[in-house]
Amino acid sequence: MTDWISSMFIIAGVGFFLAGTVGLLRFPDVFTRLHALTKADNTGLGLLGVGVALQGQSFRLAVLIALIWFLAVTASSIACHLVARHNLHSEEGER
Amino acid sequence: MADYAQRISWGAALVLGLFLVWLLLSGGRGWPYALLGAIAGGALGAWLAPGRLYRPRPIAMARFIALFVIKSLVGGVDVAWRAMHPSMPLEQTWIDYPMSLKTPAGQAIFMITISLTPGTLCADLQGSTLRVHTLASGMEPGLKQVERAIAGLFGEEQAGWVG
């Protein structure tokens, strides 16, 4: 039973990574692509983490995975802000 | 005097936090050393930290963490739907959002959270005005909600920040 629930989470998580990549390819410019990359991948990583934590069957492991998710999400948000700001400033410089 | 009490409670929260992270990482091996280290770290932190310290607010913290997790998960669903939809519904706009948060830490947390909130991305900061890129119109109420939760974290509604 746990295996089933855990695989559902992992499959859903992989689906979000796929959607993020599709967004990266389909979206028209840097800003919209950043939206796709940061947000979809964060959700994907979260669902993947829940699936793996269910497999682990240990509370400590679950909290550790939550901590990793939090650090990854924060880092990706900051990276996204830096890329967006750089792009905004270089666009303004060209005008 | 109020500052003194605040430093003690801040130090105590730091000791607890350091010790819990150690327990998490090590699984409890050698905990007496960790406890000594955590106490030393908390005391040093409370002694050396510059400026006015924040009172730890567990309820506001829990509320903000819940909002953070929900927003970032919903944000992924939102953008994944836009990416996979055949007609790709994107309605790009720029918002100039004047922040009412005063503390630098609060502003930084707000900028990080904005980029995770559904449809918004923080691109620049000029003074206390944020330049936010959005994928649809009408995003301001969501930003206000996040800002209020962060203001609660630092107790900014009650008292002004004194640098």
Principal-axes geometry of chain A comes out as: elongated
Rough shape of chain B?
globular
Quick one: how many beta strands of chain A? Answer: 0
Mean pLDDT of chain A: 90
Amount of beta strand of chain B: 5-15%
Q: With helices defined by DSSP (H or I, 4 residues minimum), what is the helix count of chain B?
A: 5
Q: How much helix, percentage-wise, in residues of chain B?
A: 55-70%
Largest sheet of chain A: none
| Number of separate domains of chain B | 2
Q: Count of DSSP helices of chain A? A: 3
State the largest interface.
A-B, 37 and 33 residues
What does this structure look like?
The complex is a heterodimer of chains A (95) and B (163). Chain A contains 3 helices and no strands. Chain A has 95 residues and is mainly alpha-helical. Chain A has one domain (2-94). The longest helix of chain A is centred in the last third of the chain and has 36 residues, at 59-94. Chain A is elongated and about 60 Å long. The N and C termini of chain A lie far apart (59 Å). Chain B has 2 domains: 2-48; 58-154, no CATH class. Chain B is built from 5 helices and 3 strands; from the N terminus they run H-H-H-E-H-E-E-H. The two termini of chain B are 17 Å apart. The chains are: A mainly alpha (95), B mainly alpha (163).
Give short descriptive properties of this protein.
A: 95 residues, mainly alpha, elongated, B: 163 residues, 2 domains, 3-stranded antiparallel sheet, 5 helices
Short synopsis of the structure:
The complex is a heterodimer of chains A (95) and B (163). By secondary structure, chain A is mainly α.
Helix/strand layout:
The complex is a heterodimer of chains A (95) and B (163).
Chain A: H1 2-26, H2 30-56, H3 59-94
Helix pairs in contact in A: 1-2, 2-3
Chain B: H1 2-26, H2 31-48, H3 58-84, E1 93-98, H4 104-114, E2 120-126, E3 129-134, H5 140-154
Antiparallel strand pairs in B: 1-3, 2-3
Helix pairs in contact in B: 1-2, 3-5, 4-5
